[in-house]
Amino acid sequence: MIDLKKLALAMGELEDEKVVKILQEFVSSNPTEQEAMEVLEVCQAAMSTVGENYEKGEYFVADLIFAGNLLTYVIDLLKPVMCSYQTEVKGKILIGTVHGDLHDIGKNIFIGLAKTVGFELYDLGIDVSIETFVEKAQKIQPDIIGLSGILTAAIDSMKKTVDGMKEAGIKSKIVIGGIPVTKKACAYIGADAFTNNAAEGVKICQEWICNDN
Fold it and tell me: Which comes out higher in pLDDT, residue 193 or 117?
């Protein structure tokens, strides 16, 4: 049986060798897809510790990048289990970090998670203009559009992007994600949902697709 508290502590302290050993033993025990998702959620939640340590000055930007890479590796380790019952694409998601913001760790984690449950992802990268979002959305007709941002200024960029897409007649569901997004910001921006957690964001997208089918 996997010790989730031990795993969470190792993730929060960025002890990559210990994390990998714990997860390799877990995967070799033939876990269920649901168990793998629960383990992944624990690993993601542990990232909040990394963020707190960064804010306290105990971690630096390099540590944040390392944390993002570690979580990506965790996803790769768990992917065979989480994808074992996945047989079809659930929908298309267009995603990017909005104009003026260059952060992509959270976005990339969301992409990794969304792919494991069957979504087809189109990543526009960072500092994405309104015009690029609109042009790509018109071309691929995504079911869902994800806007990511970490900076406070990203809120206004998200609003302008959402306004631009609505003016262009794009009907896709829109989810926003990042540290500054809140329920109030979501209403201001005009998005359909918000999240500060990549795993929660994937669940929102899954629910939308299920409700449409």
Answer: 193
Burial of residue 183 (number of CB atoms within 10 Å: 0-12, 13-18, 19+): exposed
Cβ contacts of 27-33, under 8 Å, gap ≥ 24: 27/77, 27/78, 27/80, 27/81, 29/2, 31/81, 32/81, 33/81, 33/82, 33/84, 33/85
Answer left, alpha or beta for residue 101, where phi above 0 means left and psi between -120 and 50 means alpha.
beta
Residue showing tokens 């359909």: 192
pTM for the structure as a whole: 0.74
The alpha carbon dihedral of 115, 94, 104, 179 has a sign of negative
Geometric angle at alpha carbon 174, from 116 and 154, rounded to 5°: 100
Positive or negative torsion for Cα 74, 80, 85, 91:
positive
Query: What CATH number should be reported for the domain whose range is 4-82?
Result: 1.10.1240.10
Single out the residue of 150, 162, 171, 148 nearest to residue 191, CA to CA.
162
Segment (H or E) for 147: strand 144-148
pLDDT at 184: 97
Taking the domain 91-212, which CATH number applies?
Answer: 3.40.50.280
Q: Which residue has the tokens 């380790």?
A: 77
Cβ-contact 75, 40 below 8 angstroms: yes
Position 87 scores a pLDDT of 46
